[in-house]
Amino acid sequence: MSRLSTTTAxxxxxxxxxxxxxxxxxxxxxxxxxKSAFWMMQDARLVDVERAYMELAADEHQQAHLGLHDGVPAxxxxxxxxxxxxxVGLYEPEPGDVGMHFLVAPTDRPVHGFTRAVITTVMTELxxxxxxxxxxxxxxxxxxAVHALNAVVGFVPEREIQKPEKKAxxxxxxxxxxxxxxxx
Length: 184
What we know:
It is globular, with a radius of gyration of 15 Å. 29% of the residues are buried. It has five helices and eight strands. It has an eight-stranded mixed beta sheet, with helices on both faces. The longest helix has 15 residues, at 114-128. Helix 3 links the parallel strand 5 and strand 6 (134-137). The chain is α+β, with helices and mostly antiparallel strands and 184 residues long. Helix 1 packs across helix 2 (46-58). The chain has helices spanning 24-31, 46-58, 114-128, 144-152, 175-183; strands at residues 4-8, 11-17, 62-69, 72-80, 97-104, 134-137, 156-162, 167-174. 29% of the residues lie in helices and 30% in strands.
């Protein structure tokens, strides 16, 4: 993902690459927060977060971006190649498949429509790459809130899969499904 800036109904959303050392304290606070339980990093130490994002930054098959809302850090997104990370051996990847994770920072003052604006911005950026044919996600089967949000932007569940750390709902969204969902 490149540095993207879009104006949405909730304000300007911008993406920039995660700096593992500079952003680690912020990300540690987000990832260990009870509202981020599905990221399974509740017990992570600061050094664990630094190490995880340093490894991710060094990996040619993954990228992490910090999302800013009107210039203030507000979300995290990760892009990965499912043929090489996360889903290896769990489904048959197709050319143009791109895996995605996102996390909206925990807040006591939620903004109506913010999470939808975030996922729409992330998906827009993923599909800005002409090589991306479909986006693949694998949220925890019990994360019903994200399943509903995924459906709003065009994801269609395929099946449950067993990952080492969780039972996940494998879902896909093609460029056409996304375009139809966001234009509705």
